[in-house]
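A quick aside before the break. I want you to see a complete sequence-to-structure record at least once, exactly as it would be stored in a machine-readable document. Don't worry about memorizing anything.
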Amino acid sequence: MGLRAVLLLSGGFDSPVAGHLMARQGYDVIASHFSLEPITDDGSTVKSRKLVEILGLPTLYVVRVGEAFAEVAHACHRRFYFVLTKRLMVRLADAIADRESADVLVTGENLGQVSSQTLMNLRAIDAAARHPVLRPLIGMDKQEIMDRAKRIGTYDTSVGPEICDLLGPPKPATAARIEQILEEETKLDIDGLVSGCLRGVAPEKFKGERTPVAQAPSLEAPR
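That is the input. The structure line, written in tokens, reads:
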């Protein structure tokens, strides 16, 4: 069996391209989407299902994180919101990787593309991961990513506003130190947030005409 990857799939341009590149390298890619429901509607989830179909991926996990992200926004210093929530997503993706016997996590992050994706912030995010985090787009510019999205057929689905910063600060931290992040996380029940987000989550399977088939048993957090 080849290497397996859990892709953190948003509804934007970057992560579908990252997933495509990893699949082209021979990885068996499993998608995970972190929806801000019930803070928002299910628009990003609908886009993610369509992207999974376009990419021909076999499995999608949809994890509702809206309430957990709101707790982070209210309990912690808001300028660290993006680093804290990405660390939470990494922990959730780690649990999915355990379930799927995956080797790595994959994100569409690109160095310096947005203020939260700086070298120090990415280092702080990676410190929460138990699996290696691969970023195949790390050195690409936005135009190159969009051109690739057009070539692989994901561009039209990814067009439109993203809502990932709905709860975020106007001026996020760009050089978060790990000791600052660990101090902020003492204000949270991290294990409880992870368990709560994963409760009842089940993989959606795609095959044949790329339509969902029956769900497998639900995913629970590792004990």
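Two observations worth writing down. The chain has nine helices and seven strands. The CA atoms of residues 97 and 212 lie 20 Å apart. We'll return to this after the break.
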